[in-house]
Amino acid sequence: MRTVIFRTTAPYLTSLMVLFSIFVLLRGHNEPGGGFIGGLIAASAFAIYGVACGVPPVRRALVFHPMSIAGTGLFIGALAGVISLFAGVPFFTGLWIYPSIFGVEIALSTPLVFDIGVYLVVLGTIASIALGLEEREKL
Amino acid sequence: MAGKPTEPVDITGAMVTQAPALADWLVVAPIIICLLGGAFLLAQRKNTAIQGRTAVAILALLVVAAVGLLVHVLNNGPIVMTMGRWLPPFGISFAVDVLGALLVLVGALVAFFCCLYALTEIDTEHRRYGFFPFLVLLMAGVSGAFLTGDIFNLYVWFEVLLIASFGLLILGNEKAQLDGAVKYAFLNLIATTLFLIATGYLYGLVGTLNMADIAVRVAELPDGAPINTIAALYLLAFAMKAAAFPVFSWLPASYHTPRIVVSAVFAGLLTKVGVYALLRTLVMLMPASLAVFADILAWIAGATMLIGVLGALAQSDIRRTMGYLVVSGIGSMLAGVALMSDLGLMGSIMYAVHSMIVMTALYMTCGLMIHRTGSHDLRGLGGLYGKDPFLSAIFLILAFAISGLPPFSGFWPKLTLVQASLSGGDGWLAAAILVTGFLTTIAVGRIWVMSFWRGGPSGTPDGESITQEAMPLSDPADRRDMLFPIIGLTALVIALGFLPRPYLNVAAGGAGGLLYSESYIGSVLGTEAADAAIGQELATETEAPEDNSAEGSQSGDGS
Hints:
The complex is a heterodimer of chains A (139) and B (559).
Chain A: H1 4-27, H2 35-53, H3 55-62, H4 66-87, E1 96-97, E2 100-101, E3 104-105, E4 108-109, H5 110-136
Antiparallel strand pairs in A: 1-4, 2-3
Helix pairs in contact in A: 1-2, 2-3, 2-5, 4-5
Chain B: H1 29-43, H2 48-76, E1 79-82, E2 93-96, H3 98-121, H4 124-128, H5 131-147, H6 151-169, H7 175-206, H8 211-219, H9 227-242, H10 250-254, H11 260-285, H12 287-314, H13 318-339, H14 342-373, H15 384-387, H16 389-403, H17 411-423, H18 427-453, H19 476-498, H20 500-515, H21 518-525, H22 527-534, H23 536-549
Helix pairs in contact in B: 1-2, 1-5, 2-3, 2-5, 3-5, 3-11, 3-14, 3-19, 3-20, 5-6, 5-11, 6-7, 6-11, 7-9, 8-21, 9-11, 9-12, 11-13, 11-14, 12-13, 12-18, 13-14, 13-17, 13-18, 14-16, 14-17, 14-19, 14-20, 16-18, 16-19, 17-18, 21-23, 22-23
């Protein structure tokens, strides 16, 4: 698989896919997309990078261990439900705020926070499995 | 895109409009604590130095929350919280009655003491495999299963605890562990699939997943509705989960393979979740179908008890003996379910609490015995009485308790169950319980004689004592650290034996909540909901008990 063409294009492909995964994550509330599919796209981006350039560069690129990323995602997801406590509504109630940033109204919500958590869980878990399989091949 | 709503929408018909009382958060607190804590530990997986103490702190917090929950439920009746403000039965509810709160508390205590034990038992290598994150996430699944008020959600929590238990079971990746894990995973996944299929049929039949709503609608099903088929599927699924005869074989095949503290956690928690699910679905949701299967269940209970204890007698590996004793205990719990009386269910619940504590403590004691002698086979054990008299005393107390001998915690549940069988006219079931108790005494007595009283391992001449020093503890302080959680659990065993009154009262409350579930149903569905949108026929179903019993969450005048 490690042809010159693949190795040259893989980093660009990876960065494009990660960017696209964030786009998919953010558009997910009302249109197709969301945290799960976004996380899958991001994980496949890192898998491609791993196939082309080997596992160690991917681990360096991710900075944190994939399981730590998944754990953080789970933490954020659970936190999204706890925010309801401070708003005086039951667990996991969707809360929305509409701040204006540079004159543009942006809809922020606890479902978005939850989705970001899901994104990180899926990214961390799938990347962990993919990198684990990739490494084992050389043993 | 999600824009700002331009005009206010009337949501009173679809959503909860009252702010939940702060105390209502107690019903989700165990889940939140475990999920946040487990996620934090998972993120810190490689940081083995802080994991153990953090996990102890998280589980201590869980115990505190569970105590608060039980006290609140005992004083104020069931608590309900429906996620996302949707009115039940459309939202996914968490609902807890006395039984759920009691089991959450005992489960939390068991996990807490196991975690303390694991500080010594689980070394750095096994911490890197993620023992502590898995333990805390397992507790998220166990607490969620005890607290949820939605039958599909119950399935989800089963999956959560199952996944975490897979992780714990193969901790260390040894060959025997993988072998045990395959059997465990295969049979448990079949059981979960049956559970899911049954839930699908049930949804097709009654059109709801909310347990309170199911209880109402099952009661008003027309004659000839295939509810008995669904009940049979649930019975099979949860019997597999609980390890009842003849579908118990996964338990003795896998419980002796992992680290001893993992076996202790499993023995204390997993099978009891199956029994709880059986109580919840069959006794509360489908009592009429349970009456159809009561005789079969009584035979299953008797066979589970006897075959479990005969298996325990046949084994020479003390870890396997303990596995069979877990199975035997499940039989006693099922006997109470089969009797379907107040007294029988009370005995079941008491036995579940007793078994959770005693089996965990016994596994931990076995762990220490193995550490002191280097053997887990009766042939290689011996001379422990001279070497560690204190451990001997603890083992003897636990042995009395598991056999159901007074004055320890096992006596009261057995007494209640025997009394319930006799008053229910099932003399043979009472006899089976007593014979099982007798055989259990022999099984644990054999371990006592061979491991403690005998001078040394097999082949030691009479009158001599041999002190083995195989596999000694690296540090004398380790013995103390491992004894501490065992002492904690044994103190509970003694306390439950000598002061049974509160224990009997809470168990009676749990049994009453299952048999007369009006207050549970009333607090989930509420009058206001019924008036506003949910349909008038439900209002007439639940109004009568609602007036005096639902103190809590939903009863107000929102509409």
